Amino acid sequence: MSGIVVRGVSKSFKGRRVLDDISFIVPPDSLCVLCGPPHAGKSVLLRLLVGLETPDAGALLLDGLPLERIEPGDRPIGYVPQSFALFPHLSVFDNIAYPLRMQRAAPGEITRRVDEAATLLRITRLLAKLPSQLSGGEKQRVAIARGMLKRARAFVLDDPLVGLDFKLREALMDELKDLRAVLGATFLYATSDSLEALAMADRLLVLDAGRLVADGDADAVYHAPPHLRAAELIGFPRCNVLPGRREGGACVTSLGTLPVPESGAGDALSVAVRPEQIMLLPPGMQPVRGLGGVARVGLIENLGAESVVYLDVPGLRLVAVPANDAIAGLEVGQEVSFAIPSAELAMFDTATGRPAAGGASR
Ligand SMILES: Nc1ncnc2c1ncn2[C@@H]1O[C@H](COP(=O)(O)OP(=O)(O)OP(=O)(O)O)[C@@H](O)[C@H]1O
């Protein structure tokens, strides 16, 4: 099997399991994003691939080759670590050249390869500068160039855009996607930012507390999350989670009742409601089917292209991103009717986080 294969990998530190039986494949020549909150285990997983840590169990393969048989320094994997720690006393050229010097490459080759990487990352004009003379974004480009220098079939990038302002991140995201295509390489890219993950990913892996809770096409993970934690972790503004309980063939929530078929799921259920699934209704109109009710507008955040509206209902604050024409004239404190069509809602067994089979989820 080509690409990166992670099979049944577990890792503990001092008896505390930080990766629990992780399996996935990054197909060759694709960009796969590993997304998860801080401490999920993303860095540890990438460090296992490059050989900075050793797994307790499981196998890691690249293009069919078991990585444990290859010395860490010889693995054909480029690595952009999270803390890119450039040497402050070395020029940009020497920082990028450092791994090649360690490999005792010939001076001519070093110059050629550094120039090549600098051209790709558009930092040629910075080569003579010291890190202290660079902006945050420029430092990041230098770190990426250094990671890309290796003749590698795969690259792992650990949250390479963390801490940059949004505009720069957007630009670098596009550049990294182009760069991957130019290199024709396999990328595994870790981030804790779910919007970055959705923007970057061909394929999306969601890691939560050392467990893989989603693995699939980014769009599918967003619209039909395979686990409650994936619904909660992917998307901004955050997904609303409505507590419910099974009563016969129904899931009863404080906003109404949904049909739920018999399954192995427990009686405590959670309904995931994306902010854009909440519809504000014109005055006097009541929801016909699905969930809904009357809420007081708690807060309106204008994000430019869209507005986030916080709706207070007894015991619950819902986050909504209504259609633009629905919010015209809306004011804080006002009462509004809202509806949540049931057809697109995902429902989960609260105890396990797994989909409550069938139900209203797609
Ligand atoms: N060498 C180590 N010794 C002990 N614990 C470690 C070690 N490396 C990582 N951990 C622990 O493993 C867990 C996962 O860490 P990891 O750095 O992989 O998280 P992460 O998902 O990359 O988070 P972040 O987004 O904050 O970088 C954390 O609880 C961390 O403290």
Question: Can you give me a brief rundown of this structure?
Answer:
This protein is an alpha+beta fold and 362 residues long. It contains nine helices and 20 strands.
Key phrases:
Rossmann fold, 9 helices, binds adenosine-5'-triphosphate, OB fold (Dihydrolipoamide Acetyltransferase, E2P), 2 domains, globular, 20 strands, 33% strand, 6-stranded mixed sheet, alpha+beta, 362 residues, 5-stranded antiparallel sheet
Provide structural commentary.
By secondary structure, the protein is of the alpha+beta class. The protein folds into 2 domains: 4-233, Rossmann fold (3-Layer(aba) Sandwich), CATH 3.40.50; 240-349, Nucleic acid-binding proteins (OB fold (Dihydrolipoamide Acetyltransferase, E2P)), CATH 2.40.50.140. It contains 9 helices and 20 strands. The chain has helices spanning 42-50, 92-102, 107-120, 136-148, 166-183, 194-200, 218-223, 228-233, 324-327; strands spanning 4-13, 16-26, 31-35, 57-62, 65-66, 77-80, 154-158, 186-191, 203-208, 211-217, 240-247, 250-253, 256-259, 268-273, 279-281, 291-302, 307-313, 316-320, 335-340, 346-349. A 6-stranded mixed beta sheet has the order 6-7-8-3-9-10, with helices on both faces. The chain has a 5-stranded antiparallel beta sheet with strand order 13-12-11-14-20. Helix 2 (92-102) crosses helix 3, helix 2 (92-102) runs parallel beside helix 4 (136-148) and helix 3 (107-120) packs across helix 4. The longest helix is centred in the middle third of the chain and has 18 residues, at 166-183. It is globular.
